[in-house]
Amino acid sequence: MSNASSAPQHSTALPNGWEMVVGLEVHVELDTKTKLFSASPNHFGDEPNTNIDPVTLGLPGALPVLNKQAVELAIRLGLALNCTVQPSTFHRKNYFYQDMPKAYQISQYDQPINIDGFMMLPGDVRIGIERAHLEEDTGKSTHIGGSSGRIHGSDYSLVDFNRAGVPLVEIVSRPDIRNSDQARQYVAELRAILLAVGASDAKMEEGSMRCDVNVSVRKPGAEFGTRCEIKNVNSIRAVGKAIDYEARRQIDVLESGGTIRQETRHWDDAEGRTHTLRSKEDADDYRYFLEPDLVLLDPGTEWIEQIRASLPMLPAARRAQLATLTGANKESESVYVVVERGQDEYIAAVAQAGGDAGRALVYVQQAFAEEGATPAVSAAHLAALTQMERDSKVTATQAKTILAEMVANGGGDPAAIAAAKGFEALDTSAVEAMVDAAIAQQADAWAKYCAGEEKAMGALVGAIMKASQGKADGKVVTAILQSRRG
Amino acid sequence: MATPHSISIETVAKVANLARLNLTPQEMATMAEQLSGMLEHFGGIDKLDLSAVVPMAQAVPLKNVLREDVVMPSLDRDEVLASAPDAHDGRFRVPPSAGQES
Amino acid sequence: MATPFATAIQIAQSIRDGSTTASAVLEQHLARISEREGEIHAFNLVTTEQARATAQHIDKQAKAGNALGALAGVPVALKDNMCTRGIATTCSSKILEGWKPPYDATVVTRLQQAGAVMVGKTNLDEFAMGSSTENSAFGPTRNPLDTSRVPGGSSGGSAAAVAAGFAAASLGSDTGGSIRQPASLCGLVGVKPTYGLVSRQGIVAFASSLDQVGPFTHTVADAALLMEVIGGHDPLDSTSLPQPLPSLTAVLDQGVKGMRIGRLVGMPEGCEPEVLARLEAAFAALQQAGATIVDITLPSLEFGITAYYLIAPAEASSNLARYDGVRYGLRVDSPDLNSMYGATRAAGFGAEVKRRIMLGTYALSAGYFDAYYGKALKVRRLISDDFATAYSSCDVILTPTSPTVAFPIGEKADDPLTMYLCDVFTIPTNLAGHCAMSVPFGTGAHNMPVGVQVLAPALGEQAMFRVAAQLERAS
Ligand SMILES: [Mg+2]
Ligand SMILES: [Zn+2]
Fold first, then answer.
1. What is the CA radius of gyration of chain C?
2. The domain that contains B38 carries what CATH number?
3. Is residue B79 part of a domain?
4. Residue A6 counted as domain residue
5. Is B16 in contact with B23 (CB distance < 8 Å)?
6. CB–CB of C340/B94 below 8 Å?
7. Are residues A320 and A301 in the same domain?
8. Is C92 a catalytic residue?
9. Do C357 and B84 touch (CB under 8 A)?
10. Are A103 and A242 members of one domain?
């Protein structure tokens, strides 16, 4: 998944002064070797019903025993989300469904392991985290027959319990989100944190990260409206689309004099709309009670502090550090992208080697998409390239060409590549002659540019670059044109 | 606290649905009568002042019983599916559901 | 003491010293089964072939001079709610029709490791819900001492199997008295260990916070030996106590001199006079042996039945939800999933199980939770606190195990509440998580056996067994 989806984009405002109120419930599968309460493998993509044991299948007499690593990963996540880690208990959530082997899910209820955290989004927006609790995943059904293989109208279902019992953390935000951009940023940031702390591989396409979205609308300052929960919103893009669709649907209902029923809705990504799954009235009565087969989980200060000390620097801190180093805005896409790829330390090494960190950030964002945290191009060579450009030994265009060659070859000395290609930046007097020629040839564009139409500069610059075969320095060309206009 | 210690046929029907137990009208009537008799007897606890009493759900206060994250062999799928009421293609087959998706 | 059949310790000893063989012992027991099982119906399944193979294996070991386990060659029976790999485990319910567990319960593994010879799976009230073993989908078990009477329940099959000489010992499970009451009604020793002392892994759950496994034997010493075999920490049960099992066989001869025995002031109504007379005789015997009798009260005792019959069904309603026709057992075909659930569960469960599922579901449901389940948990605390106060002035408490001797089959079958009231003395122990055992102490009405119950606090097994052994010597 690309991080482009987390970059600020503006969702259109809601009509007539309506405001949306959004909260997210995100389920993530923890990256353990075994299940939450049993020793069968937690592994995606295996043959159906091969990762099963008496506990997974809910066989008579089977008893759960809590996985220590799952607890540790849940605490890592909780600390990364600024939560308080507290003594916690497990409850049974009773409901019948084919995917739920025991007909109850073991989940944390009134005493979850992590409570009261928060996450910061661009623009200093603080989204509260109500809780991040441990629970077990369900099995998976395939609906066979009927028109579309969907649940309604299928002939039968086939159930695979490999996923049943996989450890989940459910992260419940407070209803602090006010537009779909924030929702997408929240999910993207949560994903970045999960990857950073090693809690989950957070693959939305494989279902190891799944979003349910609660949406309501109101006029600002009014009480919260009735909310609908949207299930199955399984990409960051869909989170934005589903929220925008649902808020507008609710506004339409309210403005035409209707009322919103509290219900669970389903996001149909193909149709781009939500539809009713079940209403609150026929919702189950889950009859929660303390799971008698498990005991108190009280990790204690020592364990919690040990885990805290082992946490890596989190994405937000890394972005701030990179922004400071490079002079970029900490909310810029380049900073997000580079930190997501884990290439921020590399840029620090480029700066350490005397390179221009700001230029390096641009190079790395543009050219190192396929590289990992340690690109094949050495930090010293990239530093040298930024120096050559800064000292106008090569133009930006030439530098780009050299960089492409370095990436293609898995490294190389930029000075040697420049020499081999005969690159050297044209001196200013040669550029001035080319500017004069371009003004003469493109009189129309020159007139428009002089009249204040900035766009017209493009045609002039294009002609000059063409004439110089790319050897003119774009910054120099622009400066000459501006000074000629006076 | 005044709780009417009896249970109506309607409540019996609702509870039977929650418990996924198909009961005949006759069974529901008997159930309502028997459960009401029991609840009547159980209503005796209403005379206790329990306001300050801490609930006790478990007998032994253990904590932090944890297992290392080590894989053990899984059950044999064929052995397990041989015990299933209906299996197909390595999976458990069930009739279609009209309800909840996970 | 004189027992009608050889004890587990006698059998193990005679096999160890070569005076008999495991196979010979087994054949004696199988012969008794052939003779009387038809009228008693102690078993859901007699595992003759597996038992013979095990006995032969033990005999080979003995012949080779290999070390033998503590129960080598001792025929034992298992309540049919204990998972046995590849051997049908039914809980006396139609809903588990055709199911063969792919794994063994921890207690089964421990018995096997000790060399026990499993002769069969015994009948019970369906899913252990009952006090008479009349609620079995496969028909009632009869009391071997008077086949017109019940053996008690829910572990009635396990009690009858030992009382009839079909096995030298057996295991039952006790959620509210289901070992102690049938032991009392069949003239046996029956132990409900401290919660967490014996693993529940592989025991089909009835009420998880109350269930414990324990032995039926002819003697207190046999019970101590069985406890030492099946007890102790199990990492597969999160509620298993971490500490090692205290030695029990070693304390049996220590007597009761200086011990303080609690006598309940304010005995609940409904006890047969003969039962109360035997209890008095038990106090006298202990006093004679140097113990002191101390009056104690358990003010919340009368509310125990209410707490129990809300908590146990609540947990059961959840534990029994897994019988849904999807993965194992019975399925009644239906066009959609929910009707399949409803039809399967309606056909698979008997009346008592349905009643308790309904009661438990109701007690947990929205709007009723606080009035029923929530209050029951608070009453549980009161009872536990009552015991704590009582045990500050005594080491053990003596009560009747059952208010009555074995009653005629059918007498209480139509009146669930009256049946529930028989559990008044046994239930509080389960609520508190303590240990208790029933020791035969003479006979009452109709010349049927009377059991005295010895109660002790959590992990008070040593004191409990010392008192039980003293009572046995005095009886
Ligand atoms: Mg949720
Ligand atoms: Zn959840």
1. 21
2. 1.10.20
3. no
4. no
5. yes
6. yes
7. no
8. no
9. no
10. yes
Q: Which of C178, C184, C199, C240 is catalytic?
A: C178
Q: How many domains does chain A have?
A: 3
The domain boundary, picked from A285, A310, A335, lies at A310
Q: Which residues of C touch A293 (CB under 8 A)?
A: 205, 208, 238-239
Choose one of A256, A286, A310: the last residue of a domain.
Answer: A310
Q: What is the pLDDT of residues A37-89, one digit of tens each?
A: 999 999 999 999 999 999 999 999 999 999 999 999 999 999 999 999 999 99
Q: Which chains touch A (3 or more CB pairs under 8 A)?
A: B, C
Q: Give this complex's ipTM.
A: 0.97
Element at C65 (helix H, strand E): none
Domain containing residue A412: 315-420
Which ligand is the nearest neighbour of the Cα of A108?
2
**Does residue A2 surpass a pLDDT of 50?**
no
- For this structure, is C121 an active site residue? no
CATH of the domain at A459: 1.10.10
Query: What residues contact residue C262 under an 8 Å CB cut-off, 6+ apart?
Result: C294, C295, C296, C390, C391, C393, C394, C395, C396, C397, C398, C455
Q: Do B97 and A151 touch (CB under 8 A)?
A: yes
A22 and A149 assigned to the same domain: yes
Q: Give the one of C317, C334, C381 whose C-beta lies nearest to B95's C-beta.
A: C334
CATH topology of domain C8-251: Amidase signature (AS) enzymes (3.90.1300)
- pLDDT at position A3 is 40
Among B45, B48, B101, pick the best mutation site for testing chain C contact (most C Cβ within 10 A). B45
Inform me whether the C-beta atom of residue B92 falls under 8 Å from chain A C-beta atoms.
Answer: yes
Residues of chain C with C-beta less than 8 angstroms from the C-beta of A294: 238
The three-point CA angle A429-A435-A436 to 5° equals 95
Residue A7 has pLDDT above 50, yes or no: no
Spatial contact of A7 and A150, defined as CB atoms under 8 Å apart: no
Q: Please state the domain extents for chain C.
A: 8-251
Containing structural domain, residue B18:
9-46
Question: How far away is chain A from the Cα of C213, in angstroms, using its nearest Cα?
Answer: 12
CB A384 within 8 A of CB A413: yes
What confidence score (pLDDT) does residue A11 get? 60
Q: A163-172, A409-418, A461-470, C206-215: which has the minimum mean pLDDT? A: A461-470
Domain identity same for A243 and A156: yes
CA pair distance A191, A172, nearest whole angstrom: 14
Q: Which of C23, C79, C131, C412 is catalytic?
A: C79
Q: Is residue A4 part of a domain?
A: no
Positions in chain C short of pLDDT 50: none
Same domain flag for A356 and A479: no
Q: Is residue B93 part of a domain?
A: no
**pTM (predicted TM-score):** 0.92
> How many domains does chain B fold into?
1
Q: Are A182 and A330 in contact (CB under 8 A)?
A: no
Q: Using the 8-state DSSP alphabet, how is residue A32 labeled?
A: -
